[in-house]
Amino acid sequence: MATKLLHKRGTSDPTASDLDVGEIGINTTDGGIFTKTSGGSIVEAGGGGGGATINNNADNRVITGSGTSGTLEAESTFTYTPSSSNYVLDLSGQDSYVKVGATSTGNTYIRNRQGTSYYYHNGGGKWHFGSTASGTIQFDTVSKIMAEMKPNAEVTLWHNNTKQFETTTDGVNVLGGVLGLKNTGTQSELRLYCESNNAHFAAIKAPAHSDFSGNLTFTLPGGYGSNNQVLTSNGSGGLSWTTPASGGTYTAGTGLNLSSNAFSIAYGNSSSNAVRKITTSTSAPSGGSDGDIWIKYT
User: Fold this and answer.
1) In this predicted model, what pLDDT tens digit does every residue of 161-183 receive, in sequence order?
2) Is residue 114 part of a domain?
3) 117 - beta bridge partners?
C-alpha cells in the first residue's frame, strides 16, 4: 500500500500558532485550505465548501466565493484589468446583477433582467454623481445625450443631441420653441397660480373638439397698448390694441336714437318729432300734445 501524506488538519480554520510559515492546514469540516505567510498571517488558499478565494497581501482575502450560493464577497479593493477593451466585467444570465451596499435604507443594483438593464436603489437612499463636472445619461452606441445633471443643480433634457428643456433658479425653460399640453381625454388647460400658497389660479382652456374647425394660433401685439384700449382680432389670428368708438349717434330701428348719454324716441319716422313729455299716472291718459308718452300704473 502506498504511503499517505497527510497535512495538518482539524474541524475549524487554523490559527497562526497552528502552522509554520509555508505549512498547509486543512479544515475538514468545509474543505478550506490554509497556509501561513512570512508575515505570520493565515490565508485561505482555496476550498471552503467548493468556493474559491483570491488572496491579497494587504488584507488577506479580496474575494471569497461560496460554492452553495454562487456569491462573491469582497473584503478589500478589487481591481480587474481585462485583456481586451470589449468588457470589464461580464455577467451572463437572464438575471445578472452587481449589488453595492447593504444598509437599512436598501441596496443599489446594476442589473440585467431578461434583456433590460437597470440601475436602481430599492430603498430610500440617494443617487450621487461623484464628480465636480456635469454628469450625463446617454446611449453610448449612438453618442446621443438624453439628460444632463450639473453641479449647480441644473437639469437638462435633450432630443437628438439638441437641448430642449432646462431647470433654472427662476423655474424652467423650454428651449425648442413649442410647448405642447396634451391630455388623455379632457381639454388641456394652462393654470397660472397666485403667490399665496398656490391657493387660486387663472386658466386658459382649449375649446372642445366639436368646436374646432382647424388649429388656432393667436399672435400677440408687440406692445402694451394704451389705457382703455381693447384687444381685437383681424380674423386670421393677428391681435392688436384698438380704441373702442365713443360718442356719435347709434340708431336701433326707426325712430330710436341713442346719442352719447341721451336718447330720444321720434314719432312719425321724423327725427324732428322728439318726445316732449313722459307722464306716469294711475289714471287713464287725458289731454297732452302730439309726441307725449303716458305711462299708467296700478
Assistant:
1) 889 999 988 899 999 888 999 99
2) no
3) 112
